[in-house]
């Protein structure tokens, strides 16, 4: 059997309707084996000592080789192959003194669709993996951009927020103080200026009983 053949084949339920299905298990065995052996894509092989290109559904073999691979006698192999060719018209044979070319009839009708599905699955898997990688990269870039490129609030935004919270923080001082430090908190970019204002409020609770405008160095 072709050692390069991998994957699976499509086995149609019509096989169970064949007259030999219940009467001769060796015919069933050999038929499935032929499907296993058939090439799924074009492949260079030898027929009668000369190179040929086998198309999907074709392969080269011999009676002795099939007997070794299936355990069916050589004489029975020959009879079954003739039966498949002449009676069931499931195969075509081109014989030489060295080996033979077997072609599975209607291969494309019963097998190509399955191969196309498999190929589509592989394509979708590759595309999906690329999309996941791209999405992950996008998220990482977006996260870094968000961390490193915070948009500082305007004076109006800070003023409105301080009024909303009825605190005594000087909005202009808050902006000037943070701009001078590049809107950094230690080694990291400020992520939430509103949270920073609330922190100023908390720190000043016990340090500014007079209620004056806060100009707190933090």
At CATH's second level, what is the architecture of the domain at 13-110? Orthogonal Bundle
Using the coordinates above, name the CATH class of the domain at 13-110: Mainly Alpha
**Structural shape:** rod-shaped
Give the fraction of residues assigned to helices: 40-55%
Give the low-pLDDT segments: none
Instruction: Name the beta content range.
Output: 5-15%
Largest sheet: 3 strands, antiparallel
Tally the helices: 7
Q: Name the strands of the widest sheet in spatial order.
A: 3-5-4
Name given to the CATH homologous superfamily of the domain at 13-110: Winged helix-like DNA-binding domain superfamily/Winged helix DNA-binding domain
CATH topology of the domain at 13-110: Arc Repressor Mutant, subunit A
Question: What is the compact description of this entry?
Answer:
The protein has 218 residues and is α+β, with helices and mostly antiparallel strands. It has helices at residues 25-37, 63-70, 74-87, 107-148, 155-164, 171-179, 193-204; strands spanning 43-47, 50-54, 58-61, 91-95, 100-104, 184-185, 188-189. A hairpin with a 2-residue loop joins β6 and β7.
Account of the 3D structure:
It is a single chain. Among the domains are: 13-110, Winged helix-like DNA-binding domain superfamily/Winged helix DNA-binding domain (Arc Repressor Mutant, subunit A); 155-204, no CATH class. It is built from 7 helices and 7 strands. It is 50% helix and 13% strand. A hairpin with a 4-residue loop joins strand 4 (91-95) and strand 5. It is an alpha+beta fold and 218 residues long. It has helices spanning 25-37, 63-70, 74-87, 107-148, 155-164, 171-179, 193-204, and strands spanning 43-47, 50-54, 58-61, 91-95, 100-104, 184-185, 188-189. It is rod-shaped and about 110 Å long. Helix 2 crosses helix 3 and helix 5 packs across helix 6 (171-179). The longest helix is centred in the middle third of the chain and has 42 residues, at 107-148.
């Amino acid at each position: 059997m072709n050692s390069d053949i991998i994957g699976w084949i499509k086995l149609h339920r019509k096989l169970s309707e064949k007259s030999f299905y219940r009467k001769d298990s060796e015919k069933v065995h050999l038929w499935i084996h032929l499907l296993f052996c058939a090439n799924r894509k074009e492949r260079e092989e030898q027929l009668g000592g000369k190179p040929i290109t086998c198309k999907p559904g074709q392969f080269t073999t011999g009676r002795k080789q099939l007997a070794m691979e299936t355990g069916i006698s050589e004489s029975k192999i020959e009879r079954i192959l003739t039966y498949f060719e002449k009676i069931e018209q499931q195969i075509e044979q081109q014989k030489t003194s060295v080996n033979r070319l077997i072609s599975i009839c209607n291969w494309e009708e019963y097998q190509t669709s399955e191969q196309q599905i498999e190929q589509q699955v592989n394509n979708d898997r590759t595309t999906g993996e690329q999309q996941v990688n791209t999405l992950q990269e996008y998220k990482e870039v977006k996260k870094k951009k968000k961390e490193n490129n915070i948009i500082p609030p305007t004076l109006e935004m800070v003023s409105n927020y301080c009024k909303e919270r009825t605190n005594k923080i000087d909005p202009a001082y808050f902006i000037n103080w943070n701009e001078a430090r590049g809107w950094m908190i230690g080694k990291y970019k400020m992520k939430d200026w509103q949270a920073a204002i609330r922190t100023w409020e908390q720190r000043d609770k016990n340090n500014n009983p007079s209620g004056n405008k806060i100009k707190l160095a933090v």
